[in-house]
Design brief:
The structure holds 2 protein chains of 2 kinds.
Chain A (H helix, E strand, L loop, with lengths): L1 E3 L9 H5 L5 E4 L4 E4 L9 H5 L5 E3 L4 E8 L9 H5 L5 E2 L7 E2 L9 H5 L5 E7 L10
Antiparallel strand pairs in A: 1-4, 2-3, 5-8, 6-7
Chain B lengths: L12 E5 L4 E4 L4 H7 L2 H12 L13 E4 L14 E6 L6 E6 L3 H7 L4 E5 L6 E6 L2 E6 L8 H7 L5 E4 L2 H4 L7 E3 L2 E3 L4 H7 L2 E6 L10 H17 L1 H10 L4 H7 L21 H8 L2 E3 L9 E6 L2 E4 L3 H7 L8 H14 L3 H16 L15 H10 L3 H5 L3 H8 L7 E2 L2 E2 L9 H9 L30 H18 L12 H5 L4 H10 L3 H8 L16 H9 L5 H21 L11 H5 L13 H12 L9 H6 L5
Parallel strand pairs in B: 1-6, 7-12
Antiparallel strand pairs in B: 1-2, 3-4, 3-6, 4-5, 7-8, 9-12, 10-11, 13-14, 14-15, 16-17
The chains are: A alpha+beta, B alpha+beta.
Chain lengths: 135, 634
């Protein structure tokens, strides 16, 4: 789980700007941000963007490194393409879908919506064995 | 796929031709990226290569260059800044206006380091820029809308960048607005209007990768902490905004009052940052990625809107003898909505007031009379009545009605609210600045000469060299994509914490003596091959980690020097003469304080020193040897 360390948060709002799911909540009174767990899909984009390194996570947290579509399982329902916030999945109705790597931000929005489990998420740990950040 | 080997760049610049509705890729090599980095310096390079002689700023030949810096989208503090550069309708010379809105980050995330716009659209148009390309869209429905309305009414997702009615009506100091932030100075909005472009919208999702991600993250984290702890960026600016300076400007004879006839305003407390905080502030906020949060949120007509900066307060407060803070908040909001520069607008109005006072132009405006200002601001934006003439700026008014000696402009652009007779180095900056009477492009020496430090404000000793160093530093910081407020950390906390302390006093004395040393160091490329300690200038480290470009303090200064000279060359190509480096007669010839014989700007002497220290010839042109050293091809 990703969460905001309020001690370090400087209220710059960059996390909210980069979040593809609008899952950051602004607390005007104490000028801090908070991640809404209901909306967060654990993509870690805010984690790697935060200017103050104020977004933290569990030591065993993983994030999506690459997304591929299993052609055999894909039935071309277009759900993933419609859900993708960056237009990174191309494919016609009832045709095979592919991920355009140059556009993909590895947010994982497509994974949950696929009813055929055709989308394969290749994950990597946020921290390596020595405890250093990978992302 | 990125087309560059450098980190933090997308490797792609596009050129949009409005006349032919075409979009081409503009070639810009990695070698050029290393030399010109981004922001206003990259824009200067593009304009220098394309515009070689005098042009009409409103002609289709003029180009608008929107550039990002390498640190945009790299998670560095205050790194949402981008530049809009063009040939200014106000000065006829190069102008580059910096904006803190999200639009710059959006074009970078869409995959472009810069966007160049040329030609003129046949119909009212707005452009949609995405990673799939550029769409030309009809803006007939948007024409006439204010900046907020237009941004709301554009149906496309993404970050917007629009002009208001002032830009449409070619007010020579119209601005362009992204969110609530404006690219204010130099009349870039009017150039948009002349091209029939209401605005741009950009949607992007993927930022380029930095060269050393983990290294950059560590620099950014520490840099943010340093800014939060610094007395200026961590306490003063968040608490009081830039309006914090009003009181110290008054104390140091720096607050433009009564059309720059005085540096003190008896009712300064009514328009100070403290009053703004205590009686009007709803909360502070700021640009995305900014830990400083200097922006004021205030109430106008029941709505929460952006509050004014110190320049607006000075020019619509003390300079027209108005001590009603709420009126300044209101007018600041109207000007943002109508899309025009508050500095040039305020200054032109105060000039018109003095013309009226002296019986040179009967226009109904007078000092201390505020009931007709709102109407005047609207008249300017829609070019109605006297507004049509005020929309031309103070220099053109002076050419028509006389009074050039008290038209507070340089090269046609109006001065900011700092009265330069209380800080002569700042006066030199106004006169020499490539984009006209700009405090920032001029070097902002007033920070050393009274606002933060107490360097002797009247001496000419060392001022030219200091002016050059600060101009170059700010040029390079801006090109990196950072807000200039990050350079406040250049003055370490311990100097500011005890202004009367022994160390600060010594540093104040030494500052004026370092001119010769600096001049010597400027000539030796390897003399400054280090990063400044104590995170005074972390920009050098951040750019190195983000891009992989070999950067250090010396190279950073030279980058700024390259940019400044390139801008100067553009101006020379556009017909700049040494006599254009000038200030109005009032500031050069009249004493600000009758009992203080030094309280005027000894401009001739300062400029001679400046030209020499810059290695410019007597005509104010960069010498061939200098250009060779800076690797600028003529």
């Amino acid at each position: 789980m990703f969460f905001v360390n309020k001690e370090k948060c400087v209220d710059c709002g960059y996390c909210a700007y980069v979040c593809p799911f609008g899952s950051l909540i602004h607390h005007v009174e104490d000028k801090k941000w908070e991640i809404d767990p209901a909306k967060c899909k654990q993509c870690g984009i805010c984690f790697s963007s935060c200017i103050a390194s104020a977004i933290e996570c569990d030591k065993d947290q993983q994030v999506v490194e690459k997304v591929t579509i299993n052609e055999e399982a894909c039935i071309g329902c277009t759900l993933c393409g419609r859900k993708c916030p960056t237009g990174a999945i191309s494919g016609m109705l009832k045709g095979k879908h592919v991920v355009i790597e140059e556009k993909c931000i590895h947010c994982g929005a497509c994974i949950d919506v696929c009813r055929k489990n055709a989308i394969v998420a290749h994950k990597k740990p946020v921290y390596n064995e020595k405890g250093k950040r990978n992302v | 796929m990125s087309k560059t080997k450098l980190g933090a760049y997308t490797g792609k610049i596009i050129k949009i031709d409005l006349t032919n509705k075409t979009v081409d890729e503009y070639p810009f090599s990695d070698e050029e990226r290393e030399l010109y980095i981004g922001g206003k310096i990259m824009a200067a390079k593009i304009i220098y290569d394309n515009i070689k002689s005098k042009i009409d700023p409103f002609s289709p030949e003029n180009m608008i260059v929107i550039t990002t810096g390498p640190l945009n989208t790299m998670g560095s503090p205050c790194s949402s800044r981008f530049n809009v550069s063009t040939i200014s309708p106000l000065t006829g010379f190069y102008t580059s206006s910096n904006c803190g809105g999200n639009f710059g980050m959006a074009i970078k995330r869409a995959g472009y380091d810069a966007v160049i716009i040329v030609g003129k659209a046949e119909q009212k148009t707005y452009l949609k820029i995405t990673d799939d390309g550029v769409e030309f869209k009809d803006a007939t429905e948007l024409w006439g809308l204010t900046t907020t309305e237009a941004q709301q009414k554009i149906p496309d997702k993404g970050d917007k960048f629009v002009i208001g009615p002032a830009g449409e009506n070619l007010v020579r100091y119209a601005c362009v607005v992204s969110g609530e932030r404006a690219a204010g100075r130099g009349g870039v909005g009017a150039v948009f209007g002349s091209k029939n472009v209401k605005g741009l919208v950009a949607e992007g999702h993927k930022a380029p990768e930095p060269y050393d991600k983990e290294g950059l993250r560590k620099v950014n984290e520490k840099w943010t902490r340093v800014l939060k702890k610094h007395p200026t960026t961590g306490v003063q600016l968040p608490e009081l905004g830039t309006a914090a300076l009003v009181a110290s400007m008054h104390a140091r004879n720096l607050l433009a009052t009564n059309n720059y006839r005085s540096g003190k305003y008896e009712h300064f407390e009514d328009i100070s940052g403290e009053t703004l905080r205590d009686d009007y502030l709803v909360r502070n906020t700021g640009c995305t990625t900014c830990p400083i949060r200097c922006q004021r949120v205030v109430k106008v007509e029941g709505k929460e809107v952006k509050g004014p900066e110190v320049e607006t307060i000075g020019l619509f407060g003390s300079n027209i003898l108005n001590n009603d803070m709420q009126s300044i908040l209101d007018w600041n909001y109207y000007m943002d909505e109508l899309g025009m520069d508050t500095i040039s607008c305020g200054n032109t109005i105060s000039f018109a007031m003095e013309l009226n006072e002296k019986g040179m132009w009967d226009n109904g405006l007078s000092f201390g009379k505020i009931d007709n200002i709102k109407e005047t601001i609207e008249d300017i934006a829609y070019r109605r009545g006297i507004g049509d003439e005020l929309a031309e700026g103070s220099k053109r008014l002076a050419l028509k009605y006389g009074g050039m000696e008290f038209a507070m402009q340089a090269k046609g652009m109006e001065l900011a609210a700092y009265e330069p007779r209380g800080a002569v180095g700042h006066g030199l900056g106004y006169a020499i600045s490539n984009r006209g009477g700009c405090h920032l492009n001029g070097g902002y020496l007033v920070v050393l000469e009274g606002l933060m430090m107490s360097v002797d404000p009247y001496t000419t000793f060392g001022k030219a060299a200091l002016c050059i160093m600060f101009q170059d530093l700010m040029e390079a910081c801006s090109a990196g994509g950072n807000c200039l407020f990050t350079t406040y950390a250049f003055l370490p906390s311990f100097l500011l914490a005890k202004p009367q302390g022994a160390v600060t006093t010594v540093v104040n004395k030494v500052f004026t003596k370092v001119g010769l040393v600096l001049k010597f160091l400027f000539r030796i490329p390897t003399a400054l091959a280090f990063h400044l300690p104590g995170y005074m200038l972390p920009h050098t480290m951040a750019i190195r980690k983000a891009t992989g470009i070999h950067m250090n303090f010396g190279r950073f200064l030279r980058l700024g020097e390259r940019g400044y000279n390139l801008e100067r060359l553009i101006d020379v190509n556009l017909g700049l003469k040494p006599e254009d480096d000038d200030l109005p007669g009032r500031l050069k010839d009249e004493l600000q304080i009758p009992t203080e014989p030094k309280s005027k700007v000894p401009l001739e002497k300062l400029i001679k020193k400046y030209y020499r220290t810059r290695f410019w010839d007597k005509e104010g042109r960069p010498t061939k040897a200098l250009l060779k050293r800076l690797k600028i091809k003529e």
